[in-house]
Amino acid sequence: MSRLAVSKTYKLYIGGKFVRSESGRAMERLDKQGRFIANSCHASRKDLRDAVKAARNAFDDWRGRTPYNRAQVLYRAAEMLEARYSEFESLLSREAGLGRDAARTEVQAAVDRLVYYCGWADKFGALFGSVNPVSAAYFDFSVPEPMGVVGVVADEGTALIGLVSQVAPVIVSGNACVAVASDKYPLTALEFGEVLATSDLPGGVVNLLTGQKAELVPHMARHMDVNAMDYRDEALDREVIELGTENLKRLRLSQKRPRAWWLSEKAQGPEQIEAFVEIKTVWHPIGV
Amino acid sequence: MARPSLASLLSPGAFDRPVDQVGADERAAKFTKRSIKASAKEQGLRMVVAMTDLTTLEGKDSQGKVRQMCAKAVRPDPNDPTVPSVAAVCVYPALVKTAKQALVGSGVSVASVATSFPSGQTALDERVEEVERAVADGADEIDMVINRRAFMQGAYETVYEEIVAVKRSCGGAHLKTILETGELETYDNVRRASHIAMEAGSDFIKTSTGKVTPAATMPVTLVMLEAIREHYMDTGRRVGMKPAGGIRAAKLALHYLVMVKETLGDDWLTPRLFRFGASTLLNDVLMQLAKQRTGNYQSGDYFTLD
Amino acid sequence: MSKTKQASGAVRAGNGRPDLAFGAKWEYAPAPESRKLVKIEKEYGHFIGGKFVKPAKGGYFDTIDPSTEERLARVAKGTKEDVDKAVRAARGAFEKHWSKTSPKERGKALYRIARLVQERSRELAVLESIDGGKPIRESRDIDVPLVAQHFFYYAGWADKLAYAFPGRSVRALGVAGQIVPWNFPLLMAAWKIAPALATGNTVVLKPAETTPLTALLLAQIIQDADLPPGVVNIVTGDGSTGAALVSHQGIDKIAFTGSTEVGKLIQRSAKTRHLTLELGGKAANIVFEDAPLDQAVEGIVDAIYFNQGHVCCAGSRLLVQESVHDEVVRKLEHRIQSLRVGDPLDKNTDVGAINSKMQLDKICELVECGVSEGAVLHKGRQPLPSKGYFFPPSYFTGVAQSHRIAQEEIFGPVLSVMTFRTPAEAIEKANNTPYGLSAGVWTDKGSKIFKMLGELRAGVVWANTFNRFDPASPFGGYKESGYGREGGKHGLAPYLEVV
Predict the structure, then answer these.
(1) Which chain A residues contact residue C167 at CB under 8 A?
(2) Is there a contact between A140 and C470 if contact means CB atoms under 8 Å apart?
(3) Separation in Å, CA of B34 to nearest CA in chain A
(4) Among A134, A288, B88, C340, which residue is least crowded by beta carbons within 10 Å?
(5) Residue B72 catalytic?
(6) Is B226 in the C-facing interface, judged by CB distances under 8 Å?
(7) B128-168, pLDDT tens digit by residue?
(8) Are B22 and A288 in contact (CB < 8 Å)?
(9) Which residues of B100-125 are buried (b: 16+ CB within 10 A; e: fewer)?
(10) Quick count: other Cβ atoms within 10 Å of Cβ C24?
């Protein structure tokens, strides 16, 4: 018998650490042919609670980082993703059943998307901010600020590009994030967690949970310390609105998009960042 | 009198409390929104007359001019004997004797600007001597200028010591200390100078000589009234306030009274603690009073120019 | 009530310390603005399709003058049928007229409204004070001028939208349903209508139940301005009318200003996902020991007694550094005594009538709660009119963060005073609330201001000032104070979508 490969255990990514679900639950991941790939953790609501706590703890440090620093961290993530190119290619083909070309296209698009948002870190403030010419002796300006902890529910139809396209604009402005991976493609999401873990991203800024969205999303929506949510699957819209209103979450709900849309440049833009910032206006008198 | 220690000047909340310019300007503007009508207007206008220091400070001032002004001071409106006399006339030291004679028995005080008015740029002993002479000639009140040279140089102790020296030379005369706020420029300076002047024993603090623009403004007066309030709350001593220069309209004078009433309360609504340094203001007030009485808008031809 | 202390007034402090007397030495004579300036109809219908129309089914309700408790007029109570008619009119006007009107012409229509508001400003101010109870000094000098300025400001944006969204192209959403509160009835209507029209939307506006009259006068102005019929529709009514508007299928956008409670109902029930919610607040006003204290006290007064405290962004929690607490409270005590409470139409009134009996009851209930929780109430001694709804300017000292009066919006002229020791503690206390609409900071130190304003979780931070508004300045909340911005460039986006 040839050498037995040492296969990877895929764990949740919470607070910068890879941990098993506190519930001890796991799910078997099989490829299209029904062959076993790996087990993935089946996160519970307590894992979600821990992830939100980790995100809240990370928020102050992350939003306090300089824009240049946040940009470099995102760039570093792009570098690490590019460097692990072949792993992702193989995982996308095994888990998502993508052909070689399609897998390559998706990894490349994900790398480029990280680079795209990295470039916004020290610019979006100039775009969304303003000096307001008020008609009185005051200096008045508005600046964008991160909202806090943002819950991201990854696109269900893609393994990598949806998740990356949703997480990057959320964290580039200084938000911390709890992301729930696609039900179908948890392994790729957790593999992306390993990219983030080696990108100088402070622990807790991005937390990744895998499991069942139907189970986790309502708990995310009702969590009082989650400030906003990005949810694009439509299926749970009513529930997200009903529960998310309890603390007046900013809810970004939109229609489902096909994979081609996510891969295209339509999926990126400053409005994706703008959706998760607050505008703060400041007044100060001008005098001697 | 006992000299307070300099340390007491430096207690936070007085000497160094900052003033926000825009906030002070906005607060002062609010007083002008008060609508003073009917009985309140009548009463207010009479108060303005009784609080006026009728002033002439020109190089060509003469005995004739001063005598005529004194007549006006005693009986501002010959057509309306109910109008009170003004509080004081304010003249140069050389004309104190003339004014004193003209006002004998009238109850109107003689105030004199001294201390090398308006610049104050002579040696202290010269200024003290000038004060002593004016007091000897019969001045009831001395309007001195602070040493702005020392103030600008940061020599606050000098400013303070000089006021103390002048106050000593005033004897029984009241001391009004002119800050010349137009030169001080910032409200922080105005507040600081106010506290120095009050701590040094001034009976009144006064905005301006009238020789520098801007002279009295409502926000500058407000900052000084607030300093007076602070001083009173800290020491129990009531210091008076005299805005001077630039107050020409009766309506504006009423706005000043509103400001006094709402900043320092009823106790300061008296000529003992509030004065207007003015000359042309008086006739505008008299015209408004006549309008209240007759219902007709008035002409300058019917009011004496002395 | 043993803990209740009357403000000291002309009484000298018992301990022999000097005090000021704000008495009756020179009493201002009454200076009432004339009511004759406005003609109030006996009965008002809805304004739909450019005409005043009778309600389809529902009857009428009374709008009263809160300073006299007398009925001013009967106003149509909007039902589903009225709302539907208004939405159809707005849809028709959007499709037939407004979406085909060039941006330049849209702008000119708004300029016209601004001018007409200026021309009828006195009438609008008097009517606003009669219907809502706010002092004429404020409706005349603040509300109505800002209304005109708001229309004037957004008029100019109409043909310049491309510059607000570089690299993106935008389009109007369609029909905007707008619900405004009773505290700034006309100003909030302007905040809603002006950006909606400038961006090319048409409008169905529902004024508050207790203050519908100035919006109906604005409808006349809109008629005079010759806007296409149906571009602005106004349906009066109560909460059920608002609910009918929110749940109408034909609405593309909801803009709401009001309570957090109702805001949540709207987020849950709205058919559209385009929402702007401007909700409640419990703003901290932080005074450091190095602040310009006299101006800070004036700012405290502006923060809590402006518009009887019926202000969502009111600085209702005063956080004062312990070292200057006594001095600040003393100055506040003095300042309150020269606030004049009474007839809203008297030009010298500073604090007018509480908007409604219901609101007065709510204020009284929370005040009683504050007393029973152990805070010390200092109630203004101003004589109150015998008729009408009034509450004197008041404040509580000895308030703790855990008291209800430190947590809940009183929405009246009642301040809660608390102390802090360090900047970190001030930030922690200021942010310790589900709300995040506004905050104030008073200090003379520049770098401290910037540090504080970076840490405060609030949509508007006033540094060394409070309650300043300008159409060019974006306004809106964090957290449960709502979302979306009104005013400035940022006020355009909520009425547009990127295509």
Answers:
(1) 270
(2) yes
(3) 22
(4) A288
(5) no
(6) yes
(7) 999 999 999 999 999 999 999 999 999 999 999 999 999 99
(8) no
(9) bebbeeeebbbbbbbbbbbbbeeebe
(10) 8
- Nearest Cα residue to C259 out of C193, C185, C179, C370: C179
- Encoded tokens for B182: 């137009």
Interface of chain B toward chain A, CB-CB under 8 angstroms:
20-23, 25, 185-187
Crossing angle between the packed helical segments C103-119 and C121-132, to the nearest 10 degrees = 70
**Dihedral Cα B195, B197, B201, B207, nearest 10 deg:** -110
Chain-chain contact of A253 with C273 (C-beta, under 8 angstroms): yes
C128-182 confidence digits (pLDDT tens) = 999 999 999 999 999 999 999 999 999 999 999 999 998 889 999 999 999 999 9
Q: What is the DSSP string of C306-318?
A: GGGG--TT---EE
Query: Sheet harboring C232-234: ordered strands across?
Result: C51-53, C46-48, C232-234, C202-206, C175-179, C253-257, C275-278, C482-483
Tokens representing residue C103 in the block: 């941006």
**Rounded CA separation C213/C186 (Å):** 9
- Tell me the C-alpha distance between C342 and C262, whole Å: 31
For residue A284, the chain C residues in CB contact (below 8 A) are: 449, 463-465
Q: State whether residue B15 sits within 8 Å of chain C by CB.
A: no
| Strand ranges, E, within B12-130 | 52-55, 88-91, 109-113
Q: Is B143 a catalytic residue?
A: yes
Q: Which residues of B touch C334 (CB under 8 A)?
A: 229, 265
* Entry pTM: 0.95
Q: C338 and B35 in contact by Cβ < 8 A?
A: no
SS3 category, C22: coil
Residues of chain B found within 8 Å of residue C23, distances taken between Cβ atoms: 265-266
Residue spans of beta strands (DSSP E) within C188-261: 202-206, 232-234, 253-257
Contact A199, A221 (CB under 8 A): no
Choosing from B53, B143, B203, B284, which is the catalytic residue?
B143
Provide the 3-class DSSP secondary structure of residue A276: coil
Instruction: For A49, list phi and psi in degrees, rounded to 5.
Output: -55, -45
The reply to whether residue C474 touches residue A271, judged by beta carbons under 8 angstroms, is no
Neighbours of C46 (CB within 10 A): 30
Q: With residue A270 as reference, give the H or E element that holds it.
A: helix A270-274
Give the residue from C264, C310, C283 showing the smallest Cα distance to C483: C264
